[in-house]
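Exam review. A common question shows you a sequence with its structure tokens and asks you to describe the fold in words. Practice with the pair below. Do the first one on your own.
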Amino acid sequence: EALTGRGVLSPAMAALGAYRCIECNREAAELYRDYQRGVLRISICKSCQKPVDKYIEYDPVIILINAILCKAQAYRHILFNTKINIHGKLCIFCLLCEAYLRWLQLQDSSQNTDPDDLIRYAKEWDFYRMFGIATLEQTSFLVGIFITLWWMRPEMLKTKSDFILLLKALLLSSYGKLLLIPAVIWEHDYTPLCLAFIKVFVLISNSQAIRVTLNLNRALPWLAIFFGLILENGVVCFFQKMGWDV
């Protein structure tokens, strides 16, 4: 009963080959076997002879800590063996955090303290503009990754479901952007350094998500991220040439 209450995929999904061994990434028919009367036994992978998914017995906090440590097993558990469906909401919230940070920095650089309603209205639209720019940059980053992976390994992204799974993995692995808000609230002399560390952490998480989802080595995910950053920075340069503060 403890196993079935942690967001594990339903047994019907096994017929679709949805389960994966978190150790060797091979498909598995089931995560555990129910012997009735509360007796459950974790399935053993036929390929590596290890438990298919040991995390179904773990507390969510332990799983989160392992994900923060960028362990491939934790990523496989979350992406393949659970029914987490918060990637869309998480993406919006992360973009709001990034937009708020940029908007706050824009207000700090502005010397106008006039409380006039027109000024407040303009400041509100500044936030919407920052959100739009952050969305375009994020989209450019993802497009750069997809184009690179499709160009280098077209067999990896053959179907729509492959694209959706990778997109979900990238969005979920960007959860580190939620740390932007605490970094701004507890502002101190090391805030720029903290923001840089958050950026690096998000990129490392994105790389691990690509690696786990497509079962790749370490080099190709970083190459895809590099081209994604190039496209993202291209968008930034475009807005700067238009005279916008980004």
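Now try the second one, then compare your answer with the model answer below.
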Amino acid sequence: SDGLEATVVVKNPCNFPIEFYSLDFDEQHLEEKKILRMAVGSEYQKRFFMPPRAVGGTLPPEVLEDHEAQKRRKSQQAEAKAGAEAEAEAKAMGKAMGKAAPASRTVTFYPESMVKVTRNPVSRAVLRHLGTDPSSQQRRGIVVIVHGAPRAGKTEIAAGLCQYYDAASVSIDTVVKEAMAND
């Protein structure tokens, strides 16, 4: 089609900055979407929680560091594969010429793969935002209250939060009934 042109006027009635963008044309958004898809994996299509970020901010450092580590691993694996293919080709060429190939072997060391990570980078970013140290025995926590109109999906949202954070769920009705029963 010939397209359509329109003028858009944006006014900010607030005393704090706002940010708006078009997802179809925002290169940063498209790159961050790829990074998140790699970081979260199969959970990407489902809802997941991330710490808030400032206007114009980037993804949490945990997610960016994990992405860089994955890129390094992939490039090291590609280099190792190329080296093995070149070695095999040289060996085959040496056999064709009647020469024995020198006995050499490339060993690639991946330090990142030896580190056991118990949570994905998004979870680590949320824990950092909440001020929770996963290695300490004494953890601080938060209380989330899900409130809303009847049949708005509060129970489903609370169950999802509990499952995601491996947390306990407490119903106000249950607490009030137990309090009344125990005076």
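Model answer, second protein: Residues 142-182 form one domain. The first helix runs from residue 27 to 40. Full marks require stating both points clearly.
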